[in-house]
């Protein structure tokens, strides 16, 4: 529970993706339930009632509420009314009052809703009442975002959907043959080795029959993993696969190597994985030799990199717009996929739970000795990076772009020394690199004295949004830059102009 000093510390930093302040002196405003929905559908956070925003000075102050008991009674009545809110995920200890200096603040701590509770929405229509949150505040979810949350409720995952009209003729025989060779090598006496292709795929979850309707055909798993590239691009035109080697890139040369569909290979998930793995692992610290996708005398680093790529594939949402993207930089790999995290970030770091969005794809990898199903895959990656003394892997949800980004950095965390600062792992396992060089780059970009928003600064400097935001907050705190406006209208300029 927050105390009064903690509340003042929070509001001093302003509203964030996890904090909403409302004056609400005499009654619970309708917007509270919209914020409840947005926090529950995003990553949780606090709503503070009795805190007023001073728009002129871009600050917040505690003003207090007048009749806290009546307001709380009203709030619980609404939050427990299924016609007003789809589900109540709050416990008694999540809602309380803090009184000091003659002022009372109502605190509502909203947890992140579980995947089978989302979407949390206001009213009786999820498509009009579902909200999410970013640093610009609450926003209405799109139909695609709502449908994505509804799909995630399925106990069968997303990739078991039968794609009507698709048959074994839509499978690329060479891709499936290659996979079956790996399967045979890893399971030399398995009974499935003697099955025809369709029955083999059926056992893997790549082909299915609906006993009720009689519909049968390839599932999303079978088609996306082994399908013909042209057919995949026609059926899933909104999904792209892209690998880029951007080491030593310049203004004129954006990448030195790229894997994207160019007509020379069948663009399915298994082929993409097969092509990207050697590219990422070829120049790692220890020399090695791959026989296909298996390494002789394999190392934990190579295994961790493969695990990261498999995670990208089995956790992606293939029914929304997005790209499976792998970027190789001078000192990091950046791996991203469309969708959101089904589990809280802290639980993923801790491990012990396996909740793939595409469990059939996960099985396909596991049956050839790749990937992990016990929920220890990501902790293994973290452990390997720690053993090598590298900055902890950073797993981040980018809500605005509806994607998940994993950064595997090969840098070693610096310690505070002179001018240089690097924020290392805190209690929430977040990693935020704050170097003087990045700050100087921001100040240089703002050197013309004009106001710039966070998106402009991100685009020019190539920084992630969370890192950019932390750097801007620190520069604002030290007085080197000035912030004007709130939420989505906030802009920055240097203070010496």
Fold and architecture overview:
- The structure is a single chain.
- With 497 residues, the protein is α+β, with helices and mostly antiparallel strands.
- The chain has three domains: 4-152, Schlafen, AAA domain (Methyltransferase, Cobalt-precorrin-4 Transmethylase, Domain 2, 2-Layer Sandwich), CATH 3.30.950.30; 168-409, Heat Shock Protein 90 (2-Layer Sandwich); 436-494, Arc Repressor Mutant, subunit A (Orthogonal Bundle).
- The chain has helices at 4-12, 31-41, 68-79, 126-129, 143-152, 173-186, 197-204, 220-226, 229-235, 269-281, 300-315, 345-350, 359-366, 377-387, 436-445, 454-461, 465-477, and strands spanning 19-22, 45-49, 51-54, 59-62, 95-100, 103-110, 131-134, 137-140, 207-209, 216-218, 239-245, 257-259, 289-291, 294-296, 322-328, 332-338, 394-398, 403-409, 481-484, 491-494.
- The strands form seven sheets. Strands 12-11-15-16-18-17 form a six-stranded mixed sheet, covered by helices on one side. Strands 1-2-6-5 form a four-stranded mixed sheet.
- Helix 11 packs antiparallel against helix 14.
- CATH architecture label of the largest domain: 2-Layer Sandwich
Number of domains: 3
* Structural class by SSE content: alpha+beta
- Rg, rounded, reads 25 Å
Strand content: 15-25%
SSE blueprint and pairings:
Blueprint: H1 4-12, E1 19-22, H2 31-41, E2 45-49, E3 51-54, E4 59-62, H3 68-79, E5 95-100, E6 103-110, H4 126-129, E7 131-134, E8 137-140, H5 143-152, H6 173-186, H7 197-204, E9 207-209, E10 216-218, H8 220-226, H9 229-235, E11 239-245, E12 257-259, H10 269-281, E13 289-291, E14 294-296, H11 300-315, E15 322-328, E16 332-338, H12 345-350, H13 359-366, H14 377-387, E17 394-398, E18 403-409, H15 436-445, H16 454-461, H17 465-477, E19 481-484, E20 491-494
Parallel strand pairs: 1-2, 11-15
Antiparallel strand pairs: 2-6, 3-4, 5-6, 7-8, 9-10, 11-12, 13-14, 15-16, 16-18, 17-18, 19-20
Helix pairs in contact: 10-11, 11-14
